[in-house]
UniProtKB/TrEMBL annotation:
Classification via Pfam families: Acetyltransf_1
Superkingdom to which the source organism belongs: Eukaryota
Name of the protein in its database record: N-acetyltransferase domain-containing protein
Organism of this sequence: Papaver atlanticum
Domain spans labelled N-acetyltransferase: 30-225
Gene Ontology MF terms in the entry: acyltransferase activity, transferring groups other than amino-acyl groups
PROSITE patterns for this protein: GNAT
Gene3D superfamilies attached to this UniProt entry: 3.40.630.30
Length: 442
């Protein structure tokens, strides 16, 4: 015989069937289009229910519930868009197999010297440095990508790349100069897609710090005095002391006036001010105390809920035991594990800052105060995100098991046809001590 005749086995037939199915998928038409809330809402929710988010350890996974509003995480941004990838099926039906969200905002990307201490519209009055020079923020139009999802049965078909490319085109059309995204450092698929195929570069590695909300209230030291600032006063202070911080949103007033904002709180050593009432931002800025700390609280519970799935019965039982003991013996202050195995809400702390030798302890007191507010609201955790080198990080209570030591931010310059301005190419700039995390994109 000139050749051999191979008899195909069951495994060979299954392999050929899979290859034909994969080829058939690739030949199907995929349409990238804008999300239509009226006809896409249920299909998008169903697809997202099947996708994991957040850190996983092989046993447990974190799932999110958008509370019936797929664009809730970008809805409060100045400009936003959601795209879906739709595939034609064999029965002439169409299926949503991917989605992506994006928004555009104006943020600080650097600072420059000025003579009068004001920017172009006179809002940001910056304090002088040691030499008496004054700095004002340099702003840029920045796009943010979040919520990229591709159905598990339709991955490795280039759908994610098509969604990113289409969204970037929209960013550029609307004047965005840079685009960035955040992902887990260990999420190899996401990092590879953006850095190797989409042209992004690794930029910043902030830390996500998460503290569970216990069944008991946290005691706040009587040596600390905490003020709730009126919104206008909070805006004035943020613009005066933080507008040159990287990623500071130019529309900070929109954030502070949003219904999801739960207030801005400032802590000083007890007795710093003779009166128990806030003296006013103008007086504070003219003669600031030696030490102070500040933060604001965002109610993400009204935007989405989270749930830990896949935990063993043993872990669930141990967590329940800690809660029972915490309620029975509240004076012991036993750190209890909240009910994370069913949908739970959270509060996000943003705008963290401060100065002085006691600022870390003051921040710890503010975080305890925020914990107690979250407890009253029925939240499961309190979270924040700060630069990994921010000295105030030492005053932020957190559980390592729930936190993310390094959250990777990647950035891309969208065009070369605009001026480098006074800071040059932002993607090549060194990191600062702090960053300002916009709560609208959590």
């Amino acid at each position: 015989m000139d050749g051999m005749i191979k008899v195909l086995g069951w495994d060979d037939l299954m392999m050929m069937k899979k290859m034909l199915r994969d080829v058939s998928k690739q030949e199907r038409v995929i349409v990238i289009r804008e999300y239509d809330e009226e006809k896409d809402k249920l299909n998008v929710q169903e697809m997202e229910r099947k996708c994991e988010v957040g850190p996983t350890n092989g046993e447990t996974s974190l799932y999110t519930d958008d509370l019936g509003d797929p664009i809730s995480r970008i809805r409060h941004s100045p400009t936003f868009l959601m795209l879906v990838a739709e595939m034609e099926m064999d029965n002439d039906q169409k299926e949503i197999v991917g989605l992506i969200r994006g928004c555009i905002k104006t943020v600080t990307c650097g600072k420059k010297l000025t003579r009068n201490g004001k920017n172009g519209n006179g809002n940001d009055i910056i304090t002088s440095n040691i030499q008496g020079n004054k700095f004002v923020p340099v702003y840029t139009k920045l796009a943010y990508i979040l919520g990229l999802r591709v159905s598990s049965s339709h991955r490795r078909m280039g759908i994610g790349l098509k969604l990113v490319t289409r969204l970037e085109n929209w960013f550029a059309e609307n004047g965005a100069e840079y685009s960035y995204m955040a992902t887990e450092k260990d999420n190899e698929a996401s990092v590879k897609l953006f850095t190797e195929r989409c042209g992004y570069s690794k930029f910043r590695v902030p830390s996500v710090l998460v503290q569970p909300v216990f069944a008991h209230r946290i005691r706040i030291s009587k040596r600390i005095q905490i003020f709730r600032l009126p919104t206008s006063e909070a805006e004035k202070l943020y613009r005066a002391r933080f507008s040159t911080t990287e990623f500071f949103p130019r529309d900070i007033d929109s954030i502070l006036n949003n219904t999801l904002n739960q207030g801005t709180y400032l802590a000083v050593p007890h007795g710093t001010f003779p009166s128990s009432s806030w003296p006013g931002t103008d007086k504070f800025l003219c003669n600031p105390p030696e030490s102070w700390s500040i933060l604001s609280i965002w109610n993400t519970k009204e935007v989405f809920m989270l749930e830990v799935r896949g935990a063993s019965r043993t872990r669930r039982a141990l967590a329940k035991t800690t809660r029972i003991m915490d309620r029975a013996l509240p004076w012991l202050g036993i750190p209890s594990v909240p009910q994370l195995f069913r949908p739970f809400g959270s509060h996000f702390l943003y705008g963290l800052g401060g100065e002085g030798p006691a600022s870390v302890n003051l921040m710890k007191g503010l975080c305890g105060f925020a914990h107690n507010l979250a407890k009253e609201s029925g939240c499961g955790v309190v979270a924040t995100e700060v630069s990994s080198c921010d000295p105030l990080r030492l005053g932020i209570p957190n559980w390592k098991r729930l936190s993310l030591e390094e959250d990777l931010w990647c950035i891309k310059r969208l065009g070369e046809d605009y001026s480098d301005g006074s800071i040059g190419d932002w993607t090549k700039s060194p990191p600062g001590i702090s960053i300002f995390v916009d709560p609208r994109q959590v």
